[in-house]
């Protein structure tokens, strides 16, 4: 195999090293994503000011949304 830079976010990561198999960085609390440069699951927006997802329990696949846009994944036949 080959080695590549982890590119862990220095503000959101516990360290600049990552898992050698998955590339997952060790995120600080309230950070998520592979490089710890996004909001954690269940929240979205600016990683320094995450907002809770507002997915409908009835229409959404889960309570998690896109960590950048807040878009929820809808169940088949549901939009919004």
Automatic annotation (TrEMBL):
Q: List the disulfide bonds.
A: 6-18, 8-25, 27-36, 53-65, 55-72
Q: Which UniProt keywords apply?
A: Coiled coil, Disulfide bond, Extracellular matrix, Glycoprotein, Laminin EGF-like domain, Repeat, Secreted
This one is known as: Laminin EGF-like domain-containing protein
What CDD domains does its record include?
A: EGF_Lam
Under the heading InterPro entries, the entry gives: Laminin/Netrin_ECM, LE_dom
Its annotated compartments are:
Secreted, Extracellular space, Extracellular matrix
Which residue ranges does the record assign to the Laminin EGF-like domain?
6-52, 53-80
PROSITE patterns, per database record: EGF_LAM_1, EGF_LAM_2
Coiled-coil annotated residue ranges, if any: none
Alphabetical list of SMART domains matching this protein: EGF_Lam
Q: Which organism is it from?
A: Rotaria magnacalcarata
Question: Its Gene Ontology biological processes?
Answer: animal organ morphogenesis; tissue development
- Classify the source by domain of life: Eukaryota
Main location as per UniProt: secreted
């Amino acid at each position: 195999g080959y080695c590549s830079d982890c590119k862990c976010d220095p503000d959101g990561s516990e360290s600049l090293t990552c898992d050698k198999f998955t590339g997952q960085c060790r995120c600080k609390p309230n950070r998520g994503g592979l490089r710890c440069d996004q909001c954690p699951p269940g929240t979205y927006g600016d990683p320094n000011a995450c907002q809770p997802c507002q997915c409908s329990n009835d229409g959404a696949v889960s309570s998690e949304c896109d960590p950048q846009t807040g878009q929820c994944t809808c169940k088949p036949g549901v939009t919004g």
